[in-house]
Every structure is written in structure tokens, then in C-alpha cells.
Amino acid sequence: VVVTGSDDRLWKMWALPDGNIIMTGEGHTDWLSGCCFHPSGTQLVTSSGDATVRIWDLSKRGCILTLEGHAQAVWDCSWHSCGDFVASASMDSTSKIWDVNSERCRYTLRGHKDSVNSIEFLPFSNTVLTSSADKTLSLWDART
Which GO CC annotations does the UniProt entry carry (predicted)? Predict the structure, then answer.
């Protein structure tokens, strides 16, 4: 199974190898830039040009949480391996660590001088890697 996001504001889940569409999600008001499965495979996080991050429950076939706080488009998103936190990277030059259980931003990571284009939690750690249009990579401790 793979998930794709598109300019049509939808994400689609595809079965491999036959390529049949299993599920489609709609709710973002602009293009999708990132999709990432929850470690358990039961949820999905998406990022969008509408400056939001959305959590989708795959069994309910719908959005269960919209995270708002970025000032511009969100380029990428990533789950922490424990499944309780999401990281997002934005055109507004910041990244955010979201606590899914409390439904709020835990930390805003500031330091890049241009758009933050990608973000990833390192496996089984609290370290986050970001890359930016300012031509730098940064490693962050997501706890501080």
C-alpha cells in the first residue's frame, strides 16, 4: 500500500501491485505536499499548501484533527516512531512539533533563514532532521 498527495487537494491510497485505489481523502483546501503513515498503520498525516497539517483515521475514513499554526504552506510532515508526535516543515521558515494527544503545538523550531522543505524524525530517537532553501541541514532535539 502506498499513499500519494496531489495538486487536486486529495490523497489517495493505492494497493500494490495492481494499482487499485483503496481510499481517497478530501478536506484540504490547497495542494498536498506530504503524506506519512502512523507507525501502527492506522492513521495518516498530511501537509498542505493551505498551511495546515491533518491527521486522518483510516478506519473512520476521515480527518480527525486539523493542526493550525503555520503562517504559510506546509511542505512536509513526519510521525515520531512512538506515534504521539508529528513534525511539520513550512515555507514560513519554521518547523513544529505537534503533540497529537493534546492537539497542540509543543515546540516551534526557529533557526532556518528560508523555507523549511523537509523534516524527518530519526528512527527511535527524539532527533529531527530538517532541510531548508537556505541550503542548510539542521539536527534538533525535539524535546527542547
Answer: axonemal central apparatus
Q: For position 144, what pLDDT does the model report?
A: 80
In degrees, rounded to 5, the angle at the alpha carbon of residue 14 between the alpha carbons of residues 11 and 19 is 135
Domains along the chain? 28-141 (2.130.10.10)
pLDDT the model gives residue 40: 95
The angle formed by the CA atoms of residues 137, 81 and 75, to the nearest 5 degrees, is 45
Long-range (24+ apart) CB contacts under 8 A made by 103-108 are: 103/65, 103/67, 105/67, 105/69, 107/142, 107/144, 108/69
Tens of pLDDT along 27-53?
Answer: 999 999 999 999 999 999 999 999 999
- Quote the pLDDT of residue 143: 84
* Residue whose C-alpha is closest to residue 88's, from 48, 123, 127, 58: 48
Query: What is the side-by-side strand order in the sheet with 127-132?
Result: 116-121, 127-132, 137-141
Global pTM value: 0.94
